[in-house]
Amino acid sequence: MQVFHNESKIIITCNKRLSGYLQQEVEALGYTPTRVFPTGVELKGTVTDTIALNLNLRCASQVLYLIKSFKAADPKELYDELVTVEWEKLIDFSGYFSVTSNVNNEHILTPLFANVKVKDAIVDRIKEVKGVRPNSGSEANKTLVHLYWQDDEADIFMDTSGETLAKHSYRKIPGKAPMLEALATSTIMATNWDRKSTFINPMCGSGTLAIEAALLATDKHPGLFRMNYGFMHIMGYDENVFFVERRKLKDKAKKETGFKIIATDISEDAIDIAQKNAKTAGVEHLIDFAVCDFEDTDVPEDAGVVMFNPEYGERLGVHSKLEITYKRMGDFLKKKCLGYRGYVFTGNPDLAKKIGLRPSRRIEFYNGKLDCRLFEYELYDGSKRDPSERPQPK
Ligand SMILES: C[S@@+](CC[C@H](N)C(=O)[O-])C[C@H]1O[C@@H](n2cnc3c(N)ncnc32)[C@H](O)[C@@H]1O
Question: Exposure check for the chain: N or C terminus, fewer CB within 10 A?
Fold first, then answer.
């Protein structure tokens, strides 16, 4: 099977509501999506194409390459179809593979059962042809097969990513309520920040927004932080393609930015964690960290983006305290951030009202299962004036 050379359907999955940002990234790489849906983007390409996609994409979760589409009404039909696939040309008989699935079929009560059926078909096929049973289990760090089965329509994919791409591998210490990296980068993309003016992140927690901003500004891709992907464990993989793509990314990554990224938090521990994470991402020299109440954040007289991801108080009792915090955030934006665009990412629209500024946009996101908004505030300097008249970054 010439999967590294033959085009097939590629599905790139992402968290809900991130597909518009993923689409922008895919198009910037020169690919034309054939379909965009709430949790992903579809295109055509080879497994060789998936190498560049895996290394470049910031908003994606998994890059899946279609092996076969077929009808299967029940587990027996599923097995009968899958045992005809030439698995011996994809999975080394001495290797290790695992199966994941997204299943909605009346005969399947637990996805684990579907996974076992797929595994049985693969093992039986390889044993029949090669006389040896490959090992399998739940580890996602070797060859990965993904089943998408809705009613009687099934698609079987090679998962060329393995561990999710939505985590960007630099956050060794998570801190309190950290944002998923793919979500953080998408929210920054949603601001249309020009990547060359001041970026301020008060309440930075583990530093995700500030670090993602630094990675975007330096054109440094999180794919560089990883040395293991699903595609490396598909038979026929040529490591030269990976190293050439990696070298391209390394060569274009800038070391300096020439403007400020500022990240502050009231918690000393949070700043300690954020600094460590920034160091792992190789961007600690680009971020000015400080321990302080957000009101005391240094705001240079300039233009740019100020972005908050405050707590939203899912626990009872903390609400009234947070109301005061949100009101203070509004005052801070109004008084100290004129000339900037302000953003607040929150899952609590009632608290957002306490900010006391009229949002110019309410951009929809999810944080896990929670419906969230990124509120945008135009913070005009003096009377409402044209954005082009604002102070320009130095
Ligand atoms: C939801 S967390 C931010 C998570 C962050 N986006 C991340 O990815 O790790 C909110 C942060 O606000 C900080 N915080 C709460 N009240 C603050 C205040 N008055 N001034 C500054 N930081 C504050 C907390 O210490 C916490 O780290």
Answer: C
